[in-house]
Amino acid sequence: MTGTDSDAVDPVVHARRWWILATVLTGLFAVNVTITILAVSIHRIASEFNTTEATMTWVVTGPLLAFGVVGPLVGKLGDRYGHKRLFLLGMVGVVFTAVASAVAWSAGSLIAFRVLGAVEGAATGPASFAIVSRVFSQRERVKALGYWTMVGAGGPVVGVVAGGPLVEAFGWRVLFLLQIPIAVVAFVLALRLLPETPRHRQGRLDLAGAGLLALGVAPLLFAVSEATRLGWTDPTVVAGLVISPLALVGFVRVERTADSPLLPLPYLRRRGFTFAIVTQATLNAAYMGSFILTPLLLQNVLGYSETRTGLVSIARPLAFSIAGPLAAVVSRRVGARWAATGGAVGVVAAMGWMATLGESSTAVVIMGALALAGVGMGIAMPPLSASVTASVEPRDLGIAGAAQQMVNQVGVVVGITVMQMVQQSRVEVVGQAASYRWGYLTGLVLAAGAVLTAPRIVAATSARVVFEGGEGSPSPVDAITDAAPVADPIP
Predict the structure, then answer these.
(1) Average pLDDT, stretch 255-280?
(2) What is the DSSP letter of 489?
(3) What is the pTM of this model?
(4) CA 122 – CA 402 distance, rounded (Å)
(5) How many Cβ atoms are within 10 Å of 54's Cβ, its own excluded?
């Protein structure tokens, strides 16, 4: 099964492809909705556990770090042992850690359970990405990935929107109790509907590569996230900044000689792969950085309650949910590259609009800026994800999804940290209300980088790739027709 044509897919699978999509999106939502759902409740939880707010921010940052570190390894495990199996194990893990989080007795236990939940839940992202990419033809894949992107990136935002009213009414523990039935439904549907995916067990599992990659990513993310609290000259921060590049150099050396590499390095020379994930990372940095700044602006400057903050913030996920599925239409009309570039321009404009917000801003104006960001992301992300699928071989779809997940999480943590750091550094200079402008302008600069890289992606909807020699040894003999071949090297 190449996934490039509907008649190459099993007829039964093809007939129920939209049910399969609904199933994996249910599981993806069950995982992603809690990544940031506690963001509006950090102060409340810190008071309950008699600890600092800085400590409790790790209930948000910790899972993000875990997602980024373990994503590539679980993606490879899915390629080797089957993505359906990986998805089912992920749902079991979600139920277990949701129960544990609901009964957490201290700050440390809650952080540990959330990190563990992210490790197990990280299996859902690459597995669902690979399954969707396999059951949909190239003609429908952008549309399907539009829904996948909407849930994957929009789930955390929906969590914050719903979290405020739920926490005020029932307390924060109910958030995890509500997560359990969603995961159970996803598990039951997946057991019944998801197709088995081919397993590729050639060579040994690249544990050395996984360890070096974790050592290359985790210290860097820790250093960036903690530098504002500890200072850039703190020994632990400096150590993280030194260890990470050394470990990444070691990772590249190991991958060059690995029998079955965790990340096939030749993909980094394919513009459809590299430029797509770089664009996703920079857009997510601005998008999620503003996602953290905006509730703080609403509460600290405008005096909004948690519930009102959530109601205003709902403009962004609603706009995202509408724009995501429409991305396929936009891509067909103007081309994938221009759709992705146009979406990035929308995010840039949204950051500029947010930079004008202040004490006199009305709820309608704020919601307009948030909605523009949602539209921009909703249009940009599906063609970017589809570009990745068109640039890798079918046996590596899992690791391709994991690579996206890892780079996106790095972008998210960096964006949140840098934008907050800039905003906080300007408080004493320009005052609290005006300081947020500088944070949003930082997001504008990050999103502007995506405008430069988005035009370099490839158009999956115009791809026609033929594989010879069976699924175990794919050999692309045709190329992307949109002015860039699949294996077009980066100049």
Answers:
(1) 82
(2) B
(3) 0.71
(4) 9
(5) 13
